Every structure is written in C-alpha cells, then in structure tokens.
Amino acid sequence: MKSFRFRLLVATLALLLGSVIAKSQTAADTPPPPMHGHGFGMNGQGMGFFAKQLNLTDDQQAQMKTIMEKAHTSMKPLMQQSHQIDQQLRQYAMGAYDDGQVQKLATQKAQIEAQLTVAQTKVHNQLFQMLTPDQQTKAKQMVAEHEARMQSHMNQTPLPSEQ
Question: Which among 105, 106, 128, 162 is least buried, having the fewest CB atoms inside 10 angstroms?
Fold first, then answer.
C-alpha cells in the first residue's frame, strides 16, 4: 500500500511540476518531445492550474524548466531502450513464445524502470526543493487531496453490468 501511495505521490508531483514547465514556455519555445507515462511533455488545462495555485515566480518556473529539459535529455535513452524491449515483448506475445527470452527481456526492462524511477524521484526532489516552505506545504496538501480523491474513486463499487 505504501508503494502505491509513493507512486501516486510521484505521479502527482510529476503532473504538478510538468505544469510549471508548460506554463513557463512561450509560443517561441519548442517543447521537448513527450515521454509517455512519465510526466514529461504533458500539456493541458491542469498545468497552469498548479503553477497558479503554488504562485510560482518567473525565476522558479525558468529554473524548473531547465531541470526538466536536462532530465528529459538524460532519460530519453532509457525511455528508448524501454520502448525497444516493449516491441520485442510484443513479438513474443503475438508470435512464437520463448519463456527464456521473455524472462531476459523482463529483467532488462525492470532494470531500466528502476533507473528511470531513481532519476525521476531525483528530479522531483530537486523541483520540490526549489519551492518555498509555503509552496511545499501547499503542494503536499494538493497531493494529499488528490490521493484522497483517487482512493475514494478506487473504493467505489462498479455499477452492475447489464446482461
């Protein structure tokens, strides 16, 4: 359960800090390519919401943008490796199955995911440390509220399906 909460916290912080980057870009800026599932390159209405709610300064936004761009550059090769492994795994799922090869690929993917998790957590911590104590408190409150909503949503019983 703690692992789920930690992952939810990390995902929420990624969303929160991704919003800072999106908000800080001007029309002349070219955003980095999106990194699926890892909070980078995300866009949408919620992004400006977090930056506004935390009342980030222009300087904070610029520093966070720099950190995120640097992180994107360093994590991109890992994301590409993960994608290549996914493609190979799909071949085994839709073709001849080889348990040994699938196990080998799964182990490689787990190692890459571990490296990505460490890198992401480091970036999230760097971004969080840039916040003032009041902003940190507000960010923690926002994460806790989001987690409570998600937990409430997960505890709802599904509607019975019509047969």
Answer: 162
User: Which residue pairs from 129-138 have beta carbons closer than 8 angstroms and sit at least 24 positions apart in sequence?
Assistant: 130/60, 130/63, 130/64, 130/67, 131/54, 131/56, 131/60, 135/54, 135/55, 135/56, 138/53, 138/54
CA atoms within 13 A on the CB side of 31: 17
Question: What is the reported pTM?
Answer: 0.64
Give the Cβ contact number of residue 125 at 10 Å: 11
Phi and psi torsions of 40, nearest 5°: -100, 145
Contact 120, 38 (CB under 8 A): yes
Residues in a beta bridge with 40: 35
List the domain boundaries for the chain. Answer: 2-134
pLDDT of residue 156: 81
